[in-house]
Write a structure and sequence with these properties.
The protein has 227 residues and is of the alpha/beta class. The chain has one domain: Ribonuclease H-like superfamily/Ribonuclease H (Nucleotidyltransferase, domain 5, 2-Layer Sandwich). It is built from 8 helices and 6 strands; from the N terminus they run E-E-E-E-H-H-H-E-H-H-E-H-H-H. A 6-stranded mixed sheet has the order 1-6-5-2-3-4. Helix 3 crosses helix 4, helix 6 packs parallel to helix 8 and helix 7 crosses helix 8. The protein is globular and about 65 Å long. The termini are far apart.
Length: 227
């Protein structure tokens, strides 16, 4: 889902929207989001964010809870305190945010965002609201920047087989990790992308400097011409 481009970026699009979800499990076909995180950056600066908690309609798997640390009891308490929404309302709000920012020309940034976050959103949107996200949001045309794919374009796994999860990319590029919090991970993904651009630009400048070094040679053997 989404139009992810595997290329090296040397400049950032003007408007970026980091997007991440925490979920009840890893199966995009059957699990649900328990939170959505959005972090908007304009010309490289954070300008807006939102963190949506959702009371899911199915249990959180023990493995998923170990990762993000959020229990069903916490989400039920948030729901009663009006700090979490139902599954349908979470989907409606998440899609509204994506639609708004895409209409402004934003690129969506995340880690494995097309195949996990957007795909889970699509499947839940279909099974819960009985609507097609390919029609309502045209998700096949969404401009997506996946920081994992971008890192592989910068340095292929055949060159360096280092691990490339969002946590590992944060460590590699010196970015504060999100810690499996949807909002923090959305922010971290954008920060990693911006750090990747800086790295790309530094490498390009270094390569250009080597190419443009002046050549020096001894002119003593060059015959003089008379005019």
């Amino acid at each position: 889902m989404g139009r992810s481009v595997s290329k090296k970026y040397f400049a950032s699009p003007d408007l970026l929207l980091g997007f991440d979800t925490e979920t009840t499990g890893l199966d995009v076909a059957s699990e649900r989001a328990i939170s959505y995180g959005f972090a908007a950056y304009e010309r490289g600066r954070p300008v807006w964010s939102e963190h949506i908690f959702v009371k899911p309609d199915r249990p959180i798997s023990p493995g998923a809870q170990r990762v993000h640390g959020v229990s069903m009891e916490e989400l039920e308490a948030k729901y009663l305190a009006h700090e979490a929404v139902s599954v349908p309302m979470g989907l409606i709000r998440a899609v509204a945010i994506l639609r708004d920012y895409l209409s402004r020309g934003a690129s969506i940034v995340g880690a494995n965002v097309s195949f996990f976050d957007i795909e889970m959103l699509r499947r839940s949107y279909s099974s819960v609201l009985h609507k097609d996200l390919r029609v309502d949001l045209q998700i096949d045309r969404i401009p997506v920047i996946d920081v994992i794919q971008h890192d592989e374009a910068i340095e292929p796994r055949s060159v360096n087989p280092r691990r490339r999860s969002l946590t590992h990319l944060c460590q590699y590029y010196g970015v504060d990790p999100g810690g499996h919090n949807a909002l923090s991970d959305a922010r971290a993904a954008v920060e990693v992308f911006l750090a990747q651009i800086v790295r790309n630009d530094e490498q390009r400048r270094a390569a250009a400097a080597q190419i443009s070094l002046p050549l020096s040679f001894d002119r003593s053997d060059v015959p003089l011409r008379g005019y």
